Amino acid sequence: MSKQAFDAKIAALEALRATPDAAAAPLRKALADRNNYIVSKAAGLAGDLLLSGLIPDLLAAFDRALPDGPKSDPQCWAKNAVAKALKDLSHHAAEVYLKGLHHVQKEPVWGGSVDTAATLRGTCALALIDCQLDDLSMLTHLADALADPEKTVRVDAAVALSRAGIPEAAPLLRFKALSGDPEPEVIGQCLHSLLQMSPRDSVPFARRFLTHDHADDVRAEAASALAQSHDPAAVEALKKMWGALLSPELKQALLTFLAASPQREASEFLLGLGTKDAMEALKSSRYRDEFLSR
User: Fold this and answer.
1) 112 backbone dihedrals φ, ψ, rounded to 5°
2) Which of 24, 109, 203, 285 sees the fewest Cβ atoms within 10 Å?
3) CA 266 → CA 38, 217, 254, 255, 263, distances in Å?
4) Is residue 79 part of a domain?
5) Mean pLDDT in each 10-residue stretch from start to end of the chain (294 residues)?
6) Is residue 73 part of a domain?
């Protein structure tokens, strides 16, 4: 396909936004295109325009893009867009998301290969929680994702576990946080997920990660998670942390987290500190107008 023909196809697809009632037929044709980028654009439009009648075509496009992925769907463009569109269209049959959740696609790069399916696995983990799966199956698949080689998938799995509405997800998140992760962001998301699920039980657990037993980046992730909590005990934990010996970087980060807290007490604490850095941080607080005038 020439560049001119390719650009014309993309332009024609974008033009369908102005005529959604007539978009189904051309999008159905585009979803069967051999070019994976055109399929991805068509899938995105199907989701944006809420054309649920195209779900069978989206499923067929996904299955075509799975075999020999580096050739049929380089960069997972089609599969990513289809999975997101199916989620947006409230498609709750688990089969397609389970395929995506366990799909690994190694593509050659200079000096080796890279897995380009991480975004797909994360999207499918988040979509799976709305499907009709028994709790044990759901937890089993998300536990696998929580141990995925790619950081983004592990983070999405921790988010999915908090949204799944399964109380038994909490021990999985606690175990992952305690066993550690090469990426502190994963531990931070586990703590944030636990605090969303059960604040009263999880504040004491998250508070453990504020101590000197942990590296500064892990302590920062724990502080960030606690700062987003609505539980008053979370702010008390951060106030006590402030009194400890902190590196300048961690101290500055803590000011930022306190300013972002939804609790007034956090801004009261910043005002009480009275330092230039605390006042600067207070400018980003939701209570800034009231507290800065004081």
Assistant:
1) 160, -135
2) 109
3) 49, 21, 11, 9, 6
4) yes
5) 82 90 94 95 97 97 94 96 98 97 94 94 97 95 97 98 95 97 97 94 96 93 96 95 89 95 94 90 88 73
6) yes
